[in-house]
């Protein structure tokens, strides 16, 4: 039993090294995309991955990068299973991940996602990740990706992305 726990701990540590292709300062663990790691009856490692949305174009890339990271660590055989049984939500993001987002210059989600799966209504006053002012203005509900909105800080005058609650 201790050997299984050690193996699973190694799996989680390895997953913390797999970066999100869009926001490389975040791992798949930071984003809450890993819904479970287990060993099956054949001692195969099963990683359950829930992409940030069902049509995510990076899903195959993430599966390959997870498989490669496990192979490099000698954690084989491994199978990455896409798990769409629940819809990914920003509520699954780790607090550490939210802090990394802010340090990267993207305002992290503020508040909890609605239970219906829609994002929290956008408004002015999202905290600027650079100067921390809340004197900010929504410029566009969509930014570089659909999951981000574009804001401008009225204090430091810098534009910034806000990772919407989803």
Automatic annotation (TrEMBL):
MIP18 family-like domain residues: 11-71
InterPro entries the UniProt entry points to: Fe-S_Maturation_MIP18, FSCA_dom_sf, MIP18-like, PaaD-like, Zn_ribbon_PaaD
Domain PaaD zinc beta ribbon stretches: 119-164
Domain of life: Bacteria
Protein's name according to its UniProt entry: Phenylacetate-CoA oxygenase, PaaJ subunit
Organism: Acinetobacter radioresistens SK82
């Amino acid at each position: 039993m201790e050997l299984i726990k050690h193996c699973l701990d190694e799996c989680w540590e390895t997953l913390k090294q797999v970066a999100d292709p869009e926001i490389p300062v975040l791992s798949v663990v930071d984003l809450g995309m890993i819904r479970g790691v287990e060993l099956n009856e054949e001692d195969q490692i099963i990683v359950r991955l829930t992409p940030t949305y069902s049509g995510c174009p990076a899903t195959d890339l993430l599966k390959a990068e997870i498989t490669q990271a496990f192979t490099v660590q000698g954690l084989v055989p491994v199978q990455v299973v896409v798990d769409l049984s629940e819809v990914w939500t920003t509520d699954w993001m780790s607090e550490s991940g939210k802090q990394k987002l802010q340090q990267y210059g993207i305002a992290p989600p503020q508040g909890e996602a609605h239970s219906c799966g829609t994002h929290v209504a956008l408004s002015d006053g999202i905290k600027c990740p650079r100067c921390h002012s809340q004197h900010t203005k929504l410029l566009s509900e969509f930014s570089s990706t659909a999951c981000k909105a574009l804001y401008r800080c009225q204090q430091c005058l810098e534009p910034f992305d806000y990772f919407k609650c989803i």
